[in-house]
Request: fold
Amino acid sequence: MTLRVAIGGFGAIGKVVARRLDEGIDGLTLAAVAARDVARAKAGMEGFTHEVPVMPLAGLCQFADVVVECAPAAVLREVAEPALEHGRTVIVLSCGALLDNFDLVDLARQHSGRILVPTGALLGLDAVAAAAEGSIANVRMVTRKPPGGLAGAPYLVAKRIDITRLSEPKLVFAGTAREAARGFPANVNVAAALALAGIGPDRTMVEIWADPTVTRNTHRIEVEAEAARLSMQVENVPSAENPRTGRLTALSVIAALKKLTSPLAIGT
Reply:
């Protein structure tokens, strides 16, 4: 059986995933794309082997078994709700928005749909999820990004925090993963993913630094659990098109899609 895959959002992540599907992945086929700028999306698909329709977000579920949400966080429901009502699988990248729309999980349950959150730009979620089957005392994540990767975040705007002329690292946020996801919706979906894998968004603690000394988006995770002590760090190369996200994110989506149909699956 071949799964039809639709891409909701045709930016830095969506383009990479769509192109890889067009090139060919066993058991998967690109079925449709949704984008706010239809003409730009069609131009972005020049050179694709297979022509697919470009349509509104809500219509994707009519064409696909799996819908990949890689759109702005504000339109999560527009992508996910109709797909889940039709029993589709939705791969969610705006998992920060998922924290405030958790009724979507109930909707998935009612209609035999599924919500999958890929590892994205993080690491170690398998280990954190495994540790959560026992007891976890605390989880802490420290994120460091070049100032340009945090520019325009609602939290910085609301607090009038200027990061444009930094000469040294500046701590711009310290709080829970839930607060981080609300204040930095385009920047730290990794915090929400970590929280969902572990002890929840209100016990997972997050620091965010604007750091002019780094060129990569860096996340360091510390977990103290009954089964293990985890210490992990990833340094992601920012996407050339969107410095707020790392190149690893799109590759993580591709790996998650392959896992849906592969006869061999690695990881928890």
